[in-house]
Amino acid sequence: MKSNLEKSALKVMEGIEQPAPINPRFVSGKRTVAVNQPASWYVDGIRNDDRSILSRAITLVESSLPAHYQLAQEVIEACLPFSGQSVRIGITGVPGVGKSTFIEAFGSRIIQKTGKKLAVLAIDPSSQRTKGSILGDKTRMEKLTNNPNAFIRPSPSAGSLGGVAQKTRESIILCEAAGYEIVFVETVGVGQSETEVHGMVDFFLLLMLAGAGDELQGIKRGIMEMADAIAINKADGDNKPKAELARREYANALHLFPPPDSGWIPQTNTCSAYTGDGIPEIWNMIDAYISETKQNGYFDQKRREQSKLVMLGNIERNLKNGFFQNYQIKSMLPMVQEKILKNEISAYKGAELLLETYFKSKDIGKR
Ligand code: GDP
């Protein structure tokens, strides 16, 4: 006889097996840090292009735990001599412009055409609140993810000690040491991270849509100014003529900006990540940019400028971390803030007091 539960409407039916909502390759990518391993274990793994170890090393670099910091620095330091050889391409555009679809088509095309290895680092702004990587949970770039020559890594943008840019820069070093010759850094074109990404790539590509208007796309003038090329995506079907019109408008708009130091005139293209139209041309254009700027010296000059900024950024970050982690500052800061709120001292005086205390504590430490 059937039990009451089995007859009841509350009985859970077995159901049909569903495909995993999460790309299995993302899941298998190890996201844990192997703390017990020495730096050499990471470096050997990276140099042998062991994706799982590369993935773990990136997790280590992204970690906000002070305990991981030293190990991460050792790994980066050891990878540095093997880095710098890739072409770094920043790809940006508002959500929905088709970045992941484009990267899938563009990346597959590059791998097929050049036989080179491609790493895609995606900065995921949605993780700001969740501290997890939401992009990685979607089945994005499925074809590329399964391509043995591609390594795709969505990175959380928040919760790291050194800031996103620093972490992405370090991840680039690790990917290059693993032999990736082309690195994409994908970011969402809403403002903050673009300037930083621009400061770590050789070529900056802005994806736009036809007929949406700059304001609607949330693209700031400054971002357009940084672009080495603008590609109007979704140039397919009925949208094709509109895309061409938009391309001409953007070409005109770009003419109004002062000529860039690279000597390169920013280009405008149309493309369709769906049909593949215009995709080969974008790669040819980037290829031309690389040869041109390598020839005129701008490529190396820009990299050196970027290194200078990295150094300055590091100083700033370390000073700031040192300041806010200082024992005396930690205990004094709430008090000073309270005084400012009560209007007992000015903000300038408050800052002066804290800085004086900090530098004095450093002097005492030295004696
Ligand atoms: P992202 O948010 O910028 O990464 O954009 P997605 O790649 O997720 O694409 C957003 C939507 O646009 C999806 O529904 C895509 O299928 C669609 N899409 C992307 N590229 C194209 C394209 O070239 N043509 C058309 N018609 N649709 C596209």
Briefly say what this structure is:
This protein is α/β, with parallel strands linked by helices and 367 residues long. It has 3 domains: 28-81, Single alpha-helices involved in coiled-coils or other helix-helix interfaces; 83-296, Rossmann fold; 309-361, no CATH class. 52% of the residues lie in helices and 11% in strands.
Q: Can you walk through the features of this model?
A:
This protein is of the alpha/beta class and 367 residues long. It has 3 domains: 28-81, Single alpha-helices involved in coiled-coils or other helix-helix interfaces; 83-296, P-loop containing nucleotide triphosphate hydrolases (Rossmann fold, 3-Layer(aba) Sandwich); 309-361, no CATH class. 52% of the residues lie in helices and 11% in strands. It contains 16 helices and 7 strands. The protein has a 7-stranded parallel sheet with strand order 3-2-4-1-5-6-7, sandwiched between helices. α4 runs antiparallel to α9 (164-177) and α6 (99-114) packs across α13 (279-295). The chain is globular. Residues 18-29, 127-138 and 158-162 have low confidence and may be disordered. Bound molecules: guanosine-5'-diphosphate (GDP). Residues 93, 95-101, 233-234, 236, 272-274 line the site of guanosine-5'-diphosphate.
